[in-house]
Amino acid sequence: HYPPVCNALEADNGALRDAILYHLQYSCGSTKKEATQGELARAVMLAVRDLLTERMLATEKRYQQHNAKRLYYLSMEFHLGRTLGNVLANLGLTTLLARTMEELGVDLEEIREQESDGALGTGGLARLAACFLDSLATLDMPGFGYGLKYQFGLFRQELVQGYQKELPGRWDTEHNPWLISRPDEVFAIPMYGRVEPSRGRNNRYAPVWQDQKFVLGIPHDMPIAGAGGKTVNTLRLFSARSADAFDIQIFTANDYFQAIRHQLFSESVSKMLYPSDVDDQSLEMRLKQEYFLVACTIQDIMKKYLKTGGEISNFAQNTAIQLNDTNPALAIAELMRCLVDEHQLDWDNSWDITRATCAYTSHTLVPEAYEKWPVQLFEKVLPRHLQIIYEINHRFLHEVRLRYPDDENAPTRMSLIEETGGRQLNMAHLAIIGSHSVNGVAGLHSQLLRDNVFPDFADMFPERFSNKTNGVTQRRWLYKANPPLANLITSAIGNEWIIRAETLSRLDEFAADSQFQKQFAETRNHNKRSLADHIMRVTGLVINPDSLFDVQIKRVHEYKRQLLHLLYIIHCYRAIIEDGEPPQVPRTHIFAGKAAPGDPAAKLIIKLINNIGQVINRDTRTRDMLKVVMLPDFGVSLAEKIIPAADLSEQISMAGTEASGTGNMKLAMNGALTIGTRDGSNIEIMEEVGADNFFTFGLDADTIEELRTENSYNAWDYYADNPLIRRAVDCLDSDMFCQEEPGLFRDIFASLMYEGDYFFHLADLESYIDTQQQVNELYTHPASWRKKAILNIARSGKFSSDRTVMEYAETIWQLKPVV
Ligand code: 26M
């Protein structure tokens, strides 16, 4: 069973209080009387951090004693959210701290609200990485995150007159109490320069990379505590510093401005997170960032490995590197450079080691998301790495020709270098060739990777390809985010589910129990009231807490089809005002999500959500039957507020576009019912919870593929055949929702009707409306609804990231718990 942690502290109440007061005085230079909320929060976090630091050191010692194999999870993004509440939950300190703060006369909730989200990421890939770190530590596995310490993480979103406005995020990386900076462990990272051929030892060809510029990488460690608090791993984030700042000479050399300029140039490398889903102009900076992460990481791994007495030849037996999408795929070239140039290993040995070490996960089916680097740019920044990539390619294409002698196009299709449209490096090809494992993140996604995206590679290396369906940590997303429900679950089945999510299945027998249902409904009502209060505070809008809460919370992107949801809302609105047909149940539609700053289509969708809300919310004819809310600044903390209050989870991407989805899992785990297409992990959620307990609709991926190849989707057919569809879509051509800015949404109308609509909205709209009708129907039978909701929780065990991480550990990393 889940151990009640930190028993010692529980007994020794005074210790935590003393530690907080100590830090208030000596770390914040303040007193209890004078301290601001911010200073109190800092003192609390530092006191808690001390507990983590002890465990972190003990954990490292344990790993060294066991000479344990280590996993390095390389990711350009980690979306951590707040840390304090999560640490308290995992260490079992929540009650003790609450009591301590009460004694000190401080409101713990206010202190917790002081912490801002660590949002060093844009979307699902970044949050998945954070869930994996939680699971690795909980499973006592030596798994370490490696990323960048951006000065500016993801932008903060405000809504100004319904438009997204981007502001700097609030996460303070400079004075962050969780981060332990280690300036003494600095790494020097070379870039630019040129390669000179020369003869090394034994007359061996030994190219020399010369005249490089150096950027320094400083590591900062964030302790990652697992449940129970026995294991505390780290997330290591690098920040960039100028090499010259450490070289006093340049400042005394009378070239002050030159020195400062060089400093700015270097430090810009970790300045900000690029919203990855946008083609931007700053390609060169992005390339430097990706390389900087990879180079710091490989140096660090190698240094640690050698320091603990490891032999280079055994490197892969002791080290696993997981590449979180292609962003860190350069690790393959950098590891080769390190082995060949710095450790003078021969090529074949180096290549075997590299491939045995690295593994690659793809997270998308969006074609634009597959990274390609212009060869020219690459050559300028990383001349030695380009040579290495040419050599890898040369040898690989030789294999391809031997293997497919009759397929003369195979080498062109599979090459690392694309010759069409300007020479470009294909990073996915590098990742596949240089890894022993390639995986997708849900069953359908992995199949589509094999069949459609990388068919040549799947044919040549079938054993490399596998599926690892995503998961989420139930500790943050249920235990911490939803205490009323978590307590109810524990009172029914005990608390083992916190570390063994599959035991949630014990709830199955409570699904029809009227007493349990009643208590479940109470938790839901409580959460819905809290969310209604929050909505009131943030937007000024009064919503009906007894209405059905219908939520769509995720990045705003055309493929996720927020527009489909909006067309349904418009349909409902017109049915009320024109047909006098109020819906069977009152609904509140709750949206939240950010658009990429460089994605005008997504930004216009945000404006449309807000305008539809404006019009509908103040139309007295809808009374409290229909409301539309958009909450600003979606992120982990807002998700933690919305998810526990959701009745219905919208997962309506066009089939074949959402790699997996993880919000769908969080919502199901909290007892929301899903309305979803047969896409990503929706398919597996439906399999687990049962088709009776899931609302599915729309075309499947095969049918969509067919329509596309036959070129037979025609939006006008659906428009002509169904007057309700026409009535809804026509609103976008009119100024119904943009009286003040006439014609504002005509581009959306055009994208749906004239431009072939890549996302086939209208093909699924009728089926979606019908299914929403079934949702209403069911909601009028509370007992049936609750039973299905409880069954969703009971059968969500598969979607714990503990399960996912165990699968990676067994089949890709060969990683074992170290206890
Ligand atoms: C890039 C350029 C232009 C347009 C879009 C992109 C782009 C799209 C997706 C870039 C990156 C993208 O994916 C990153 C990501 O977060 N993917 C998500 O990963 C999650 C974890 O595996 C999955 O659950 C989500 O389905 C997937 O979208």
From TrEMBL:
CC terms in the record's Gene Ontology section: cytoplasm
InterPro entries from the UniProt entry: Glycg_phsphrylas, Glyco_trans_35, Pyridoxal_P_attach_site
Q: Give the enzyme's EC designation.
A: 2.4.1.1
Cofactor needs? pyridoxal 5'-phosphate
* Entry keyword set: Allosteric enzyme, Carbohydrate metabolism, Glycosyltransferase, Pyridoxal phosphate, Transferase
Any idea which residues bear N6-(pyridoxal phosphate)lysine here?
Answer: K666
Q: Which reaction does it catalyse?
A: [(1->4)-alpha-D-glucosyl](n) + phosphate = [(1->4)-alpha-D-glucosyl](n-1) + alpha-D-glucose 1-phosphate
Q: Which GO terms describe its biological process?
A: glycogen catabolic process
What function does this protein fulfil?
Allosteric enzyme that catalyzes the rate-limiting step in glycogen catabolism, the phosphorolytic cleavage of glycogen to produce glucose-1-phosphate, and plays a central role in maintaining cellular and organismal glucose homeostasis. Phosphorylase is an important allosteric enzyme in carbohydrate metabolism. Enzymes from different sources differ in their regulatory mechanisms and in their natural substrates. However, all known phosphorylases share catalytic and structural properties.
**NCBIfam families registered for this protein in UniProt:** P_ylase
Write out the GO MF terms.
Answer: glycogen phosphorylase activity; pyridoxal phosphate binding
Q: Which family does it belong to?
A: Belongs to the glycogen phosphorylase family.
Please state what the protein is called: Alpha-1,4 glucan phosphorylase
